[in-house]
Amino acid sequence: MNKPRTLAEKVWDDHLVVKGEDGTPDLIYIDLHLVHEVTSPQAFDGLRQAGRPLRRLDLTIATEDHNTPTLAIDKPIADETSRVQIQTLRNNAEEFGVRLHSLGDLEQGIVHVVGPQLGLTMPGITVVCGDSHTSTHGAFGAMAFGIGTSEVEHVMATQTLPLKAFKTMAINVEGTLKPGVSAKDIILAVIAKIGANGGQGYVLEFRGSAIRALSMEGRMTICNMAIEAGARAGMVAPDQTTFDYLEGRPHAPVGADWDEAVAYWKTLPTDEGATYDAEVNLDANELEPFVTWGTNPGQGVSLSDVVPSPADFSDPNERAAAERALEYMDLTPGTKLKDVPVDAVFMGSCTNSRIEDIRVFAAIVDGKKKADGVRVMVVPGSARVRLEAEAEGLDKIIEAFGAEWRFAGCSMCLGMNPDQLAPGERCASTSNRNFEGRQGKGGRTHLVSPQVAAATAIRGTLSSPSDLEG
Amino acid sequence: MEKFTSVTGVGVPLRRSGVDTDQIIPAVFLKRVTKTGFDDALFANWRQDPEFILNQPEYSGARVLVAGPDFGTGSSREHAVWALRDYGFDAVLAPKFADIFRGNSGKQGLLTGVISEEDCEKLWAALEAQPGVELSVDLVEKKATLGDLVVPFEVDDYIRWRLLEGLDDIALTLRNEQAITDFEAKREGWRPKTLPVRHA
Fold first, then answer.
1. What is the rounded end-to-end Cα distance, in angstroms, of chain B?
2. pLDDT band at B135 (very low <50, low <70, confident <90, very high)
3. Which of A9, A185, B121, B198 is most buried, most CB within 10 Å of its CB?
């Protein structure tokens, strides 16, 4: 009888090339390497200097996303350094033979949206990318994590990474979400509970009835933000929802391969009696729409609460961080969060830009007008999501509402392309990071769900969908 | 990579916790395609404040940064490490580091030593009492010394070994070339392949 194992342990064990001994790391095989323009140029340079080929072109795929504009995509990129970085990726892809989906291509988009929609992301595989939000792909029961540029070069050269085993943490979410409460609220509540570095060194496995009830899009939102709890990865065990999402996608297995894959995938869920290094419980029944008030993703509360006071924190580091955050965010303790007005609403990013997210947003704003003076941007995660939304007429609803309907990319999530906040502007954003200046220098970010983003765009102050009733 | 045994230089007390990589280097500086030239980008937004500690002349030529817990959280950008290195830092001491940042540092010869919160306070106080004072960080002995104050730090044994030896990760891994090839030979047919391109 084998020792009961967790999902993460099973995937790890099945990718062991060399087992480490005496404190040396294991050598782990990488099934899928996603590449984008920002973290790859120096890695390609390294290969070139060492005269090394890219070992597995057939396990590598690149897209353009971080630098790309979301307007006038048929024109040359105005910013010279952005243009050079994109052109560098195109040159490198050409020289090494890497599959690349460029701006304007049907498969272009945010790397973490493109992988799943092509059916390349699947259960039981290892996925890496020079981007911390690679954790997204764990929603399929894959082991997926972000790496630095040196590791990008390492994977290009060897298709492996030397890694020490991660610890495991079960996040048990039982119950049923109330209407208007979503996957985004679950993960924001988890991060607020364990802290922005509470997951450090761990793979988080999201479990329980509330997780099982989520769509793949919802599970991706949750795993996407596992990194915001400091975790190496987030995972959800594969089930029928996963298989149904995958089947028929361009790169999903077919025929006998599909049958073999599904049979294997069904062995992946954590065994009865397996133990985790840590466990956390969250009651889905009690959960309210969530919002961050500070400058790290752990600084969040229910939207119906008030802005906390630094005095509420007993830990001196947390208290100092809260003081700094409130000053940066220009918020006064005791203010009702629902009284906080916003200048902008950003609906997009690898956290919430899939078709389901766009549908949710459109359904809430359908037939309404955005609040005066609020700038609202809706940015689909990929060119395909854009087309799919347009086929459903969602673009018309969004434009009639008064929002901008853009082309695919990372957009206002990270202040690297033209979509940025002005200094002092306050934004309700469906993205993943509320760090100082993340959405543009001096910009202030409140992380929210698509539902809250939509309600906020209608009312002009932070709002939940239930505030729209009556 | 050069071998790292010890460093002696000006220490900077950065009294902040949760310093994320967007603060270490804002995204606008990530557009460069080189590994160098990031020194002006380090803490770029904070450095616009004349009061910010790195703008104080006493701390010029700094080589050791002492920061609060959860240093390097957020984005995986290795540019954060390049910026610290370009500016002149050889070591960061803090009570806790984010995983990806810690891994990136070890590959670029930047030592990340984990100290206790108590020792962090002591180092901050000592560095603030004598702005511009030098401290020594010894990777062999795993301790930092500032006058009479001796602070032990922890570092992953494998990262420490690679830093001490100045080893290149890729060359180390390629010693296992045969094992990688053998592993690939038994890779199942259902596993993902990006080529040939398949369309919906």
1. 45
2. very high
3. A185
